[in-house]
UniProtKB/TrEMBL annotation:
<dbReference type="InterPro" id="IPR003820">
    <property type="entry name" value="KdpC"/>
</dbReference>
<dbReference type="GO" id="GO:0005524">
    <property type="term" value="F:ATP binding"/>
</dbReference>
<dbReference type="Pfam" id="PF02669">
    <property type="entry name" value="KdpC"/>
</dbReference>
<keyword id="KW-0406">Ion transport</keyword>
<comment type="subunit">
    <text>The system is composed of three essential subunits: KdpA, KdpB and KdpC.</text>
</comment>
<keyword id="KW-0812">Transmembrane</keyword>
<keyword id="KW-0067">ATP-binding</keyword>
<keyword id="KW-0633">Potassium transport</keyword>
<keyword id="KW-0547">Nucleotide-binding</keyword>
<dbReference type="GO" id="GO:0008556">
    <property type="term" value="F:P-type potassium transmembrane transporter activity"/>
</dbReference>
<keyword id="KW-0630">Potassium</keyword>
<keyword id="KW-0472">Membrane</keyword>
<keyword id="KW-1133">Transmembrane helix</keyword>
<comment type="similarity">
    <text>Belongs to the KdpC family.</text>
</comment>
<comment type="function">
    <text>Part of the high-affinity ATP-driven potassium transport (or Kdp) system, which catalyzes the hydrolysis of ATP coupled with the electrogenic transport of potassium into the cytoplasm. This subunit acts as a catalytic chaperone that increases the ATP-binding affinity of the ATP-hydrolyzing subunit KdpB by the formation of a transient KdpB/KdpC/ATP ternary complex.</text>
</comment>
<protein>
    <recommendedName>
        <fullName>Potassium-transporting ATPase KdpC subunit</fullName>
    </recommendedName>
</protein>
<dbReference type="GO" id="GO:0005886">
    <property type="term" value="C:plasma membrane"/>
</dbReference>
Amino acid sequence: MSGGTLASVAGRQLWTGLKFLIAMTIVLGIVYPLVVLGVGQVIAKDQADGSMVTDANGDVVGSSLIGQQFEGDEWFAGRPSAAGDGYDALSSGGSNLAADSPDLLALIDERRAEVAAANGVAPEDVPADALTASASGLDPHISPAYALLQVNRVATARGLDPLAVRALVEEHIQGPTFGFLGADRVNVLELNLALQRLQP
């Protein structure tokens, strides 16, 4: 086979490869993402848009999928977070401390004492999710037990009837996903927004 013929074959193969690359870039880089986005907007618009939560004024205050830090006795507190300075989505992750780490055990003891003192309960009554961060550090949920533990503190700080605040918590308890995945939980952001509307 002559050099000219080899160059011609190589040129055709290069051109075929280049056409394939362009076609796949258009299909997989433009068409496919647009189709997935369109299907998401039709089937699950709220989730596709980030599950945003709005306040009474219609302002976006966060996502129901990512926890937030709430300071002060007038708010329900979420789980501890090891993500950056707390619920930093750019620093998602756990503490990476082993279960028998002296640092982790000391931190849990410190948190247990703080939560018990803040809520006027015995240290042994503090649930585990009040003491440990989730694996992502972004969990927006707490257990019903932890939410109910905070009722008296929040009601006192806001001058509300504890029974009304307790009823609000019970209204916001979400069951397991699909009825069997996970446990009962309370979304702290959604609960605190409802709490804002529950004024004396």
